Amino acid sequence: MKLHLRWQLLLAVVGFGLILAILSFQVQSAGLCTTRVPASGGVFAEGMMGAPQRLNPLFSDSFPVDREMVNLLFDGLVQYDHAGRFIPALAESWTVSEDGRSLQFTLRSGLVWHDGEPITTADVAFTYGLLQQDALPAADAVKALWQTVTINAIDERTIEFVLAEPYAPFLEATMRGILPAHLLQEVPVAELASHSFNQQPVGSGPWRVAPGQDWTASRSLRLTPNPMYWRGGTQIPALDFRFYPDEESLLTAFANGDIQAVNSVSDEMLPAMTAVPHARLFTTVDRQYTQIIFNQSDTGFVPLRQAEVRRALAAGLNREQLIDQALNGQGVPLTGPYLPDSWAYDQAIFAAAGVNTANSNELLNSAGWLLPEGSAVRQREGELFQLRLLVLNNDAQQRLAQAVAAQWAKLGVEVLLETAATITDLREKLAARDFDVALVDIAPSIDPDLYDFWSQEAIIRGQNYGAWNNRRASEALEAGRQTWGMGQRRPSYNTFLNIYADQVPAITLYQHVYTYALSSEVNQAEIGPIYEPRDRYQTFANWFLLYRDVTIACPAEENS
Q: What spatial distance separates the first Cα and last Cα of the chain, rounded to whole Å?
């Protein structure tokens, strides 16, 4: 009997313990909550129109998609900041000799390629040395510049460039991405353009090409973060670029959720994109502007050689209305040949020289171009004021040209549109000066040197398609490129701008804007000013696509 009682007591104690444990667990569980937190994983897919050809900084100049990819994969010696000034990239510093003919760069320590090999000045000398080779299929102007430069690799971190004469714009040439000599130095120069490196390159930039893919066939290129750049890691392990043949298929892929971003939203695509519920749009100014060039040569309309006529035509255009009517508001009114982020930009000069719409008619009347009663077109000695406006055959340019023609018609100026079928056709007509006025898009250099656009020499060997022949302006541009330092160069560019503003060789209409579309399913994505493609991903380390549930202690309730 006693033994039986002991078992009953033992069972009672165990049961009581279980009850206490269950009650304790319930008390503890009552203080726990579940919450969602960011989780690593997923693939961020971005769509763009077109596809790259070669992922190589030596061959990307003429191909917009190639330039985008190259900017993500490669670094040059320098880069530029948002004030248009050059700042370190692979080089930590540089100096210019007293005579202005020698530049010496010092590389940052500890630099490595995506494959882990060290980056040295041998790579720099190899890359820029290739641009001196006639056999390299690169732009003649680029090779002509580098062929005048002597390259001296002093040690593994120090390299010197000796110029034939002082040339301040040379610094911009060192932005070009550097190639790995250890992978390409045995490749014949003439074979570089067709080498497999261009499909699976090794660079030093913030992104790497993932191995084992044939993006030319799949029309999808996967990049992974360079751990030397993203030292804190990223929550999204891969970035896929997917290439589409047209805007319709690109928009459909975004609307369906096949991609989480659209690389560039055109003004034509904008209304449809804003209708997509999950679209977030980030808009910033672009490094490009549109202007109207006056042909002042003997192949153009003779009155355009008169500055007062050019001033009248400039004053007769309302930039804000052009942007609203033709571009869905996607542009920023701009005057002059420099973008606002250039240190040479000075709007006060144009404000002082400007004329307003009210005196456009007075200027044309004083030039002898009168509007007879009952006529819609001005005349002088029986000649009609008719302008041939050369414009590229795309929707945006055509709409803009028609809006310009409508505004000039109010001044009594008749505009005859002449369309260039392709960009090549446009360039040929510009070079032949087969136009009176031409609507062109300009992507100016970061350095304010405009010698190749507006000097007297550029009329023959350059892009002075309007044949503006002004000796003082030409001399100012020449002086500006032969001096180093913003303080020393600024007076030359102010002189140039004063002459330009007074003589009006061209009318700048607007600065382009760039719009990036991002899906709301991409969390914690904030995008600031975008001056180059890699700027889109400045905060990429914070972006995430996935969540996971975790258990935490419930927050204490506040006493009322």
A: 59
Give 201-229 pLDDT, tens digit per residue: 999 999 999 999 999 999 999 999 999 99
User: Which H helix or E strand runs over 254?
Assistant: helix 247-255
Phi first, then psi, for residue 423 (nearest 5°) are -65, -40
Residue 372 in tokens: 């007879």
**DSSP conformational letter for 440:** E
Q: How many CB atoms lie under 10 A from the CB of residue 382?
A: 5
What is the C-alpha separation between 6 and 8, in angstroms, rounded?
A: 5
pTM, rounded to two decimals: 0.87
Q: Indicate the residue type of 59.
A: F
CA-closest candidate to residue 417, choices 437, 395, 396, 431: 437
Structure confidence at residue 34 (pLDDT)? 78
H-type alpha helices, 51-192: 64-73, 121-130, 140-146, 170-173, 181-184
Q: What is the DSSP string of 484-516?
A: -SHHHHHHHHHHHHHHHHHH-SEEEEEEEEEEE
Q: How confident is the model at residue 37 (pLDDT cuts 50, 70, 90)?
A: confident
Secondary structure letter of residue 148 according to DSSP: T
Cα separation of 488 and 471, whole Å?
A: 21
H/E stretch holding 93: strand 91-96
Q: Which residues of 351-362 are buried (b: 16+ CB within 10 A; e: fewer)?
A: eebebeeeebbe
Tell me the C-alpha distance between 368 and 452, whole Å. Answer: 34
The rounded distance, in Å, linking the Cα atoms of 168 and 103 is 10
The encoded tokens of residue 113 equal 């390629």
* pLDDT tens column, 224-253: 999 999 999 999 999 999 999 999 999 999
The residue among 70, 57, 69 whose CA lies nearest residue 123 is 57
Phi, psi of 409 (to 5 degrees): -60, -30
CA torsion 123→124→129→130, rounded to 10°? 60
The identity of residue 388, as a single letter, is: R
User: Could you tell me the two tokens for 385?
Assistant: 């004021």
Whether the Cβ atoms of residue 466 and residue 506 lie closer than 8 Å to each other: yes
> CA–CA separation, 239 vs 223, rounded Å?
5
Closest C-alpha to 119, from 91, 96, 93, 94: 91
Q: Where are the beta strands (DSSP E) in 144-276?
A: 150-153, 158-162, 207-209, 220-225, 239-244, 261-262
CA distance 232 to 248: 38
**What is the chain's length?**
560
Residue 252, CA distances (Å) to 194, 309, 367, 523 in order: 34, 48, 54, 22
Q: Check pLDDT > 70 for residue 2.
A: no
In this structure, how many other beta carbons lie within 10 angstroms of the beta carbon of residue 9? 10
